[in-house]
Amino acid sequence: MRRALWLTEVQMFGNTRDPLDRIIESAEITRADVARLDINAAYLYWDALRQDAVGPPQSAFKLDALPPRLVPCLAVIDFVGPPLDYYYRFFGSSMVEAAGKELTGKTYYKDKVQGYGFVNARLFPVLIEQRQPLFHRTIWESVKRVRLQTTSLRLPLSNDGVTVTGAVTANDYKFV
């Protein structure tokens, strides 16, 4: 079982390179914490596709197979490099609204994305290493100065069934 770890704003700012980071709190949660949310449909679909692999290949994960209300809350990311970077193949419209910017077609470090994606930048290396889904709840302030609670799952994608080559993130947003 994973332990819950709450990080304060001061602790998170200590490691940031993004002047727009506004993480207030962040905690690892469990699969049970997302079971009643719409984003659970992404987990169930991902789990059925992957069979015994670490994750399904990106080409097998079809957005149109998911409930339409969920797609705006998803991102599909390819891991590129070295050095490791994150290419946003798809960035849903609810995420664009929360982020205040469109990231589809952008690469996180190469394109110097600021104000969004900083939690992914910290957690994707963990996803790659652990090779299993990650579940988190984060309270943060957007670049629009709107405070949100985001419950997220990060699901590994794997082109060979062993190595994590990308991810799907699914988010549930609430204003706080």
Task: Put the structure in a nutshell.
This protein has 176 residues and is α+β, with helices and mostly antiparallel strands.
> Helical residue percent?
10-25%
Low-pLDDT runs of 5+ residues are 1-20
Secondary structural class? alpha+beta
Number of H/I helices: 4
Q: How many strands in all?
A: 7
Distance between the termini: 28 Å
**What would you call the shape?**
globular
Major sheet: arrangement of strands: 1-2-5-6-7-3-4
Calculate the mean pLDDT score and round it: 86
Give, in order, the helices and strands: EHEHEEHHEEE
Strand content: 25-35%
Biggest sheet, in brief? 7 strands, antiparallel
Radius of gyration: 15 Å
Oligomer: single chain
Give the secondary structure arrangement, pairings included.
Layout (H helix, E strand, L loop, with lengths): L6 E2 H5 L9 E6 L11 H11 L23 E7 L4 E7 L1 H7 L18 H13 L3 E8 L5 E11 L8 E10 L1
Antiparallel strand pairs: 1-2, 2-5, 3-4, 3-7, 5-6, 6-7
Question: Key features?
Answer:
seven-stranded antiparallel sheet; disordered N terminus; 7 strands; alpha+beta; 20% helix; globular; 176 residues; 29% strand; 4 helices
What would you note in describing this structure?
The protein is an alpha+beta fold and 176 residues long. It contains four helices and seven strands, in the order βαβαββααβββ. It has a seven-stranded antiparallel sheet with strand order 1-2-5-6-7-3-4, sandwiched between helices. Strand 5 (134-141) and strand 6 form a beta hairpin. The chain starts with 6 loop residues before the first strand and ends with a strand.
